[in-house]
Amino acid sequence: MCDPVGMIGLAFSIGSAVMQYQAQQDVMNKQQQANNEWLSYQRMKARQSDANQEAARSKADVARANTVSELNAKNQQEGQETEQKRLEDEMMPTVDAPTATSQQSIGDQILGKAGGRIEQHYADALTSATRDARQRMQNLAAIASTTGSQFGLANRANSLLGESQDVLKLQGNIRQGDLVAYGVAKAVEPIKYSINPAAGMYGGIASAAGGFASKLGAAAAGGSQSS
Amino acid sequence: MGGKGAKSQNSQMVNFEMEQAAKAEQKEADRKYRLEQGMANIKSVFHGGPGQGDPFAPIKENYKTNLTELHNANLNDTYNKALDEALFATARAGQRGSTTSRDIMADIGGRKYEQQSDGTYKAIDYGQYGQAKNKITSDIDKSLGDLNTQIQSAEDASENQLYMTEDPAIAQNEAAKLAGQIPAVPQYNSLGDLFKPLVVGATGFYSGYQGQNDFNQAFSGKSPLSKGSIKTSSG
């Protein structure tokens, strides 16, 4: 009734199953751990890359915002007025009293020499000429400051845009390089586990032995019954 | 019977990949540092280091001084010639000291000093002289603007070199070379005729001549006091 060989075989079978189960559990546990580690690594690299990208993007954005602010209507108007004033001072320089009184133009030298109506006519002509000249220079300064003078609106805008372009180009280049480096980290794969061949071998042997023992037990039981 | 049931299939490969990732990260950090260093070097060549002024200020000042002197020399020469011509022409036409001669003087122009409310004086260049001075100021301003454009172009070329080589030392050398190639002396282009040709008293002179001629014919050489000396339409 209780076949000892069969029991041995059963024990071997049970043992084999247990070994197989343990091996599989070990694989699953280790794989899970490897996956978790890989996930942590990828998350860390992603955070680092995001931080680098954000730092570069912020620098570029600051440069862009500064330029946009400088190019708004109010600042452009201030820039134009400053340039207009600079040009007016270039064309109508300020001198001190000693310089002004010591230097007389030819026109001023003959002023007061004619007398009468000719003198009045000449004084009026001089006044008209200087008034016209002042107006002309103010108009010229206003026009030049809005167009192509050294620091006029056109050159001012080009200069500001050029400065921010330098920053944008550099930060863009840095972001591209960071993405390339992150790409290498993203390509790292998780460690893959499989059942240890040695553990499989022992299980297989136990399974085979159990099967043999079962057969042996069955054969022995059949022989004792017939006798 | 037991023993570890799990065996890794690709741990070596994974280790290699992680090593490569670490190297790529370090390489990128080094490259970023070189780019930032190179950019700072270029900026110092073209804009001066911290606390330093504009390295091109002496060149810009030289441009302004040089062009001002050259243009003013030409202007003063032609201005004096215009004044001389006005003096002689009005004298030849018998209009010296007249309103015509003073109109001509106002038209040729000069520099007048106008007192401001704060006691200082503003120099006002009027007439053709004033227009010539304005032309000179515009020309000098344009030359300085062109100089700024040249400097900017050299800086852009240096930055392109940096991005190609990613070597801050090479970029700095290239920047210094390009900055040195910017001419220290401006190109002088004469502004041409600064004063309009003077036509003084041609009409007045001719009228005067013709008037005298007509008078002579009318008197037929006789004394204006003798009878029949004035021709009339009937005779």
Please, could you describe this protein's structure?
The complex is a heterodimer of chains A (227) and B (235). With 227 residues, chain A is an all-alpha fold. Chain A is built from 7 helices and 2 strands, in the order ααβααααβα. Chain A has helices at residues 4-70, 73-91, 97-102, 106-109, 116-146, 153-186, 197-226; strands spanning 94-95, 193-195. The model of chain A has no long low-confidence stretch (mean pLDDT 86). Chain B is mainly alpha-helical. Chain B has 6 helices and 3 strands. Chain B has helices at residues 11-47, 57-92, 99-108, 127-165, 168-180, 202-219; strands at 6-8, 110-115, 121-126. A two-stranded antiparallel sheet of chain B has the order 2-3. Chain B is rod-shaped, with a radius of gyration of 39 Å. Classes of the chains: A mainly alpha (227), B mainly alpha (235). Chains A and B meet through helix 1, helix 2, strand 1, helix 3 and helix 4 of A and strand 1, helix 1, helix 3, strand 2 and strand 3 of B.
Uncertain ranges of chain A: none
Helix run count of chain A: 7
Oligomer: heterodimer
* Strand composition percent of chain A: under 5%
Please indicate the percent range of residues of chain B in DSSP E strands (runs of 2 or more): 5-15%
- The sequence of SSEs of chain B as H and E is EHHHEEHHH
Tally of strands of chain B: 3
Q: How does the overall form of chain A come out from the CA principal axes? A: rod-shaped
Helix segment count of chain B? 6
Tally of extended strands of chain A? 2
> What general form of chain B does the structure show?
rod-shaped
Distance between the termini of chain B: 163 Å
Question: Span between N and C termini of chain A?
Answer: 15 Å
Helix content of chain B: 55-70%
* Radius of gyration of chain A using CA atoms only: 49 Å
Largest interface: A-B, 81 and 67 residues
Spatial order of the strands in the main sheet of chain B? 2-3
